[in-house]
């Protein structure tokens, strides 16, 4: 089944075209990204499998225009990989927030669209962009079935004592104020892949997955189901991130609003877009930039990594206590996969669990690899996440069931 996987941001469209023959049997046909949508100069990247990437700069007015660029590139007579858009049998979308409505992926219809719209309140930076992407596909190839996969769905196994806040219960009943989590698609994929690599029985296991990037979250997974995660009502909760502050004393919010004469929207912007790595360092939200600065002795860049390391160790320890142990700890995401120094610092603080670290493998730059010694009581690994593959699998199964 030829499936186009779409991941829309507010001004971008990431895409992959896959030929799905089975859950683990597939070919990546092409991939790319549309960037700076709505700005004077947009960027369109297209990379057919095994060939050079093509980069074009041009104005891209909206997501519909962006989708037209993607489809035109895929069907281009010289560089395209499809005869026509009719070769696309299904489209799968990543959606950040599905609230309590969705515990799994769903076929797009107007009822589903209404629920995604309601959840815009919970993910105002993400869900509106996903809606634009779905509507853009409907406008360009209306007959093709679409499926949505939710970042929150995997976390719906959390129990009330884990997801409820100690606020008046009526706010949950009226407004859905509770913890939902995020990055669920990544945590699900990595836990399954990591368990296979480590020889751990997923159905009888205690796994902690660390998705570390510009947005970061850690999840406790017992017997294949989520029992707790660090992100909450929105993706702001949890540890320090690229531009998000993570956990803070809630009273800081009204305190700063009064001191700085800030509106709720301005305070939200500070916590979501001006804090985290950027706020502490004063220089960058990108861990790669800060790594260079830290190696040059910049004290604030060093502080960022010490804070990140501290947050991760603390959350791992919390989840070990919740599950009464851990069998496997997994690192993924841009930072988790590419920062061996951070992994080393974390694992060196987990020797109390019986974790025996493999320094050589960790420093080798390998991916999908164990970074603990064979005799280690607790195992750890670096796993490359593949959210697009999860979306493609779910899309294949849902669309195939329609045909059956």
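^ structure tokens above, recovered residues below v
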């Amino acid at each position: 089944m030829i499936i186009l996987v779409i991941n829309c941001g507010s001004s971008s469209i990431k895409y992959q075209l896959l030929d799905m023959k089975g859950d683990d049997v597939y070919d990546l046909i092409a991939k790319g990204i549309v960037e700076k949508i709505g700005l004077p100069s947009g960027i369109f990247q297209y990379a057919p499998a095994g060939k050079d990437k093509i980069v074009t700069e041009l104005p891209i007015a909206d997501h519909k225009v962006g989708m037209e660029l993607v489809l035109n590139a895929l069907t281009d007579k010289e560089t395209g990989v499809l005869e026509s858009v009719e070769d696309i049998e299904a489209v799968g979308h990543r959606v950040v927030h599905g609230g309590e409505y969705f515990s799994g992926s769903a076929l797009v219809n107007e009822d589903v669209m209404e629920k995604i719209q309601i959840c815009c309140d919970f993910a105002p930076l993400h869900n509106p962009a996903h809606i634009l992407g779905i509507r853009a596909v409907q406008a360009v190839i209306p007959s093709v079935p679409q499926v949505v996969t939710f970042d929150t769905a995997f976390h719906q196994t959390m129990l009330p004592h884990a997801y409820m806040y100690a606020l008046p219960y009526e706010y949950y009943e009226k407004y859905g104020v509770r913890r939902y989590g995020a990055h669920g698609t990544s945590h699900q994929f990595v836990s399954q892949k990591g368990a296979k690599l480590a020889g751990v029985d997923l159905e009888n296991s205690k796994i902690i997955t660390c998705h570390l990037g510009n947005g970061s979250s850690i999840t406790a997974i017992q017997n294949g189901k989520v029992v707790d995660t660090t992100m909450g009502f929105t993706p702001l909760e949890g540890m320090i991130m690229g531009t998000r502050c993570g956990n803070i004393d809630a009273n800081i919010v009204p305190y700063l609003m009064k001191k700085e004469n800030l509106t709720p929207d301005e305070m939200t912007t500070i916590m979501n877009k001006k804090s985290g790595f950027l706020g502490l360092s004063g220089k960058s939200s990108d861990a790669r930039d800060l790594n260079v600065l830290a190696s040059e002795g910049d004290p604030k860049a060093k502080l960022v990594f010490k804070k990140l390391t501290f947050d991760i160790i603390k959350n791992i320890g919390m989840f070990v206590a919740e599950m009464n142990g851990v069998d496997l700890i997994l690192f993924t995401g841009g930072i988790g996969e590419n920062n061996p120094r951070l992994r080393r610092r974390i694992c060196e603080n987990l020797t109390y669990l019986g974790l025996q670290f493999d320094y050589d493998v960790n420093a080798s730059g390998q991916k999908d690899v164990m970074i603990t010694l064979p005799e280690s009581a607790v195992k750890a690994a670096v796993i490359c996440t593949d959210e697009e593959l999860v979306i493609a699998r779910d899309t294949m199964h849902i669309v195939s069931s329609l045909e059956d």
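The radius of gyration is 21 Å.
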